[in-house]
Amino acid sequence: MKVYDIFSKIYPARNRYAMKFFLAALPGMLVPLIALLLFILNCGQVKPVILVIGIAGTLLSVGLIMFAWSLFKKLTAPVVLARETIAKYNADHALPTLPVDYEDEIGALLATIQEFLDNIDTQLTEKSDMIDLLSHDLRSPVARIMGLSNLIKLDENPENVEYAEYIYNDCKNLLTLLENILLMFREDTTAFEAQNVNLKGLINESVNFFTLAAGDKQLTLTADIDEDLVINVQAGLFTQAIRNILGNAIKFSKEGKSIFITAQKKGQEVSITIRDEGVGMKHEDLLKIFERFTKAGKKGTHGEASFGLGLYLSKKIIEKQGGKITAESEGVNKGAKFVITLYQLITKKSGNKMKNLKDGAKK
Questions:
Q1: Is residue 293 in some structural domain?
Q2: β-bridge mates for residue 262, sequence order
Q3: Residue 339 within any structural domain of the chain
Q4: I want to staple 18 with a disulfide (CB 3.0 to 4.6 A). Which of 4, 72, 183, 227 is the partner?
Q5: Is the CB of residue 344 less than 8 Å from the CB of residue 232?
């Protein structure tokens, strides 16, 4: 790599692979021309024949140099093909067929790229099949639960009707989430089509979602959000990210504690903070909690299971929408704080959809 590094610092060859070969071969191509010029200079008196030979030799040398440059450019065609193939696959996932029969180093490189893309395409296909399988297997039981909850609503006991309504709404939200997650994994752009959303309405819906879970632990959930604060996100997925974080705060809080949700707007960004008074965590765990199937996960204060996936998905969802999430804790039993930062904040309200969300926040 040292020789390659040296040639990469020479201006004409900095971004042209063929130029590096050309500069390496140029001294050898110039030797005959230099020898011819020295011969002419040593002849003392230049005869017409020698002059013609000199001019012809010079033109021939220049022609050979130009031909060599053209040849070097053509020899780098496989490298250009490899680059364009990878770019095209990233753009439209069209699996290419590269020439892999060559036996030199470039042939080995093309064969490696082809094998790599084949493996990636196979994995993506298997992933898609698994998503379709999960979609089918999850939709059916959820739909059945929704049907049964509708039957329970016919009961004359008001309490049963209320619980049935909770079940129905949760199942409906689950189906919506399922669709959004499937779109996210398929990288369908419609899954992340942003819209103007009233943050207070979105947060209040999430707080209401956890009414029963928070009540079981006598937790107080306090949301202090400006009712006119509007963010530009994909509402369904962003709501799930908030619920994952809020659910974690409830899971790791002991009876009688409080959870605080606040938001601040500064310039063209907004920060959403979810702070709890729960079990907290060590500094080393802060570095792992956003990892997929993290080993930093632990059971909740009532023995609730932790799969180590919720915060990972929340981070992915928030980053897909142009934001970031960070976690802080002063230590064990000192609570935790999660801060979501969103950029390109939109403050213009968006018609009836915004009105409906604000109306929902007031109920």
A1: yes
A2: 224, 273
A3: yes
A4: 72
A5: yes
Report the interhelical angle of 351-362 vs 199-209 (nearest 10°).
Answer: 40
Which domain covers residue 199, as residue numbers? 193-362
What is the CATH number for 250? 3.30.565.10
312 in a structural domain:
yes
pLDDT tens for each residue of 69-124: 677 777 777 788 888 888 888 877 778 888 888 777 778 888 888 898 888 888 87
Give the Cα separation of 111 and 101 in Å (integer). 8
Distances (CA, A) of 149 to 146, 210, 216: 5, 19, 22
Q: Which DSSP string corresponds to 333-363?
A: TS-EEEEEEEES---S--HHHHHHHHHHHH-
Residue 189 reports pLDDT greater than 50: no
How many of the other CB atoms lie within 10 Å of CB of 8?
13
278: which 2 tokens?
């729960």
Is 205 found in the same domain as 67?
no
Q: Mean pLDDT, to the nearest integer, of 124-141? A: 68
Around Cβ 215, how many Cβ atoms within 10 Å?
10
Number of domains in the chain: 2
On the 0-12 / 13-18 / 19+ scale of CB atoms within 10 A, 283 is exposed
Distance CA 130, CA 126 (A): 6
Q: Are 58 and 38 in contact (CB under 8 A)?
A: no
Domain boundary among 10, 40, 75: 75
Q: What is the pTM of this model?
A: 0.55
Inside any domain, residue 28: yes
DSSP-derived 3-state class of residue 101: coil
CA 208, 334, 328, 228 torsion: positive or negative?
Answer: positive
Of 160, 313, 165, 162, the residue nearest 245 (C-alpha):
313
User: What local confidence, expressed as pLDDT, does residue 287 receive?
Assistant: 79
Helices (H) and strands (E) in the chain, counts: 12, 7
